[in-house]
Design goal:
Elements (H helix, E strand, L loop, with lengths): L1 E7 L5 H10 L3 E3 L7 H10 L4 E5 L5 H4 L2 H10 L3 E8 L2 H11 L21 H12 L7 E4 L5 H12 L7 E8 L10 E4 L20 H8 L2 H23 L4 E8 L5 H13 L4 E6 L4
Parallel strand pairs: 1-3, 1-4, 2-3, 4-5, 6-8, 6-9, 7-8
């Protein structure tokens, strides 16, 4: 059976991801206690279910500790298990809870000896949840949804579904430093040292995917040197990540606005490695 396990911080988009998987034909279960995962898989396997998606959150605190072992056991039994961990920065999470006017799942829990009137604040709930989930964050692919719209998250989840049989998938992601570094990045490269096309009024409305911007940066010796340096670094260390049985490696390229230099560099790197590896290209600041 193909199993997608969705976990992560409340408010980071788990429901959005689960809806994408349901639309893709997965049998979906939300808020399943991890202790019930193995029995659910057995029941659905006996019924002939081919694809399952399960969302797990921090409310099942006691059984979360067994989740890594459960995942390994399911894989040993021959199931294809993919894990997605969704996260976001605290500022984005607070804004989302404020917009929806929903309470955090952990806000209803009482600590030992606590007065029922003295419940956790939203910030306390988020910090507690991060602590509970820290041990399982690296079970799979981490997606930082801080600056993602629901539509972009849906697209990224669909991309992830296409990587089922790849031994390792390389994600190249462009971003804007002014909007924050992606929390899901394994490596972050700063390309702001390159000449900025933004200061050319004819190039400003374009992006690093447009020919005039590409031509401008191709003509800069520093751009070529930096591209080779990053490419050589990734090539040197990629075998180590493969030997460590990693399924994903995210290389993030940042510039000031996430429109020109970082996009150009991500496109160049993705094109180079696509002949050798399974590559997914993302531009966080572009629709």
């Amino acid at each position: 059976m193909r199993i997608v396990l969705i976990t992560g911080i409340s408010g980071s988009g788990k429901s959005v991801a689960l809806n994408v998987l349901e639309d893709a034909g997965h049998y979906c279960v939300d808020n399943l206690p991890p202790a019930l995962l193995s029995s659910l898989v057995k029941t659905l396997t006996d019924e002939g279910t081919q694809a399952l998606a399960v969302a797990v959150d921090a409310r099942s605190a006691e059984s979360l500790a067994t989740l890594p072992t459960d995942v390994l056991r399911l894989r040993a039994e021959g199931h294809e298990v993919k894990v997605m961990f969704l996260t976001a920065n605290t500022h984005s999470l607070v804004a989302r809870f404020s917009e929806t006017r929903r309470s955090h799942p952990l806000s209803h829990e009482l600590r030992p000896g606590q007065n029922p009137a003295a419940r956790r604040t939203l910030i306390e709930c988020i910090l507690e949840e991060r602590e509970r989930l820290s041990a399982i964050e690296k079970l799979g692919h981490v997606i930082d949804t801080s600056e993602l719209s629901a539509n972009k998250l849906r697209a990224w989840v669909k991309e992830l579904l296409l990587t089922d049989h790849a031994p390792l998938t390389l994600f190249f992601e462009s971003f804007a430093f002014k909007l924050g570094v992606p929390m899901d990045a394994d490596f972050v490269f700063d390309v702001r040292a390159l000449p900025n096309p933004y200061y050319d009024l004819t190039l400003r409305p374009l992006t690093g995917r447009d020919a005039p911007v590409i031509d401008f940066l191709d003509a800069q010796p520093s751009a070529g040197e930096l591209l080779i340096d990053i490419r050589n670094f990734v090539e040197k260390w990629l075998p180590s990540f493969k030997s460590d049985n990693r399924s994903y490696l995210t290389v993030a390229l940042g510039c000031t606005g996430g429109q020109h230099r970082s996009v150009y560099m991500a496109e160049k790197l993705a094109a180079y490695f696509s002949d050798k590896e399974r590559v997914v290209l993302r531009h966080r600041e572009q629709s």
